Amino acid sequence: MQSQVSSPVSSPVIVALDYDNAAAALAMAEKLDPSLCRVKVGKELFTVAGPQLVKELVGRGFQLFLDLKFHDIPNTVASAVKAAAELGVWMVNVHASGGARMMEAAAEALLPYGDNKPLLIGVTVLTSTAPEELAAVGVTRALDEQVLTLASLAKDCGLDGVVCSAREAQALRRQCGAEFALVTPGIRPAGAAADDQRRIVTPAQALEWGADYLVIGRPITAAADPMAALRQVLAEIGVQG
Ligand SMILES: O=C(O)c1cc(=O)[nH]c(=O)n1[C@@H]1O[C@H](COP(=O)(O)O)[C@@H](O)[C@H]1O
């Protein structure tokens, strides 16, 4: 496994490095302090820049969330999360809707990593999904019920937490307990554009409702001064930046 010398992180913010090239992602990482935020590499950046960039960011001391939202047959997903662990990532995710056998296989694949294993997180219902969109994909129960059902399944399968909207955090916290990690994208400081997100919440409100981690992309990365935007978020949630 890639050795990881990351500093303790004093903030819940995970900056989504949603860029179409490695140079832009590294330029942003250069400005960020790994003790004040974590970073996330998602599908676009990983597709263009791959494991090499992940290793580079981990080598720079960042705790890294590899957000590839695996969803496949159990054997393939188990192998994929193992490959992520080998890169030294701090968190990796799968779609909880991939089902129990898939999630159990993923959790089992990480057991040999012991205390060094990445957090394994299940995506419930994407924060870009509006309630009225669910029926069209065959989900007839209410959106919040679907989130709770998938989160319970994820917990029963040995996952460490879920990705959800902070709007669902209070109910999830009650249902899944204090130790279950709630990772919340769709975070928008007051007045920021929603973009394609639908179930948005401010950073302070998300934490108040029980979120553990705030995934924030465009409000920071597309700001004229990304560092000022990050500092503003940190100030709003009372973290010294
Ligand atoms: O798994 C994720 O990170 C994720 C899940 C989800 O339900 N919604 C969601 O927006 N995300 C990711 O979180 C980031 C949000 O970015 P912004 O909308 O720019 O803040 C993107 O990288 C998304 O891929």
Task: Tell me what you see in this structure.
Helix content is 39%, strand content 15%. By secondary structure, the protein is an alpha/beta fold. The protein has one domain: Aldolase class I (TIM Barrel), CATH 3.20.20. It has an 8-stranded parallel beta barrel with strand order 1-2-3-4-5-6-7-8, surrounded by 5 helices. Strand 4 (91-95), helix 4 and strand 5 form a beta-alpha-beta unit. Bound molecules: orotidine-5'-monophosphate. The site of orotidine-5'-monophosphate has 20 residues, from strand 3, strand 8 and helix 8.
Q: Give the helix/strand class.
A: alpha/beta
Q: Which strand-content bin applies to the residues?
A: 5-15%
* Helix proportion range: 25-40%
Q: Output the helix-strand order.
A: EHEHEHEHEHEHEHEHH
Structure annotation, total helices: 9
CATH class: Alpha Beta
Largest sheet: 8 strands, parallel, barrel
Number of E-type strands: 8
CATH architecture: Alpha-Beta Barrel
Major sheet: arrangement of strands = 1-2-3-4-5-6-7-8
CATH topology: TIM Barrel
Give the low-confidence spans.
none
The molecules bound to the chains, other than polymers, are:
orotidine-5'-monophosphate
Distance between the termini: 31 Å
- What is the assigned CATH homologous superfamily? Aldolase class I
Task: Tell me the domain tally.
Answer: 1
Coarse shape: globular
The averaged pLDDT comes out at: 95
Rg from Cα: 17 Å
Subunit structure: Homodimer.
Family: Belongs to the OMP decarboxylase family. Type 1 subfamily.
Organism: Microbulbifer taiwanensis
Pathway: Pyrimidine metabolism; UMP biosynthesis via de novo pathway; UMP from orotate: step 2/2
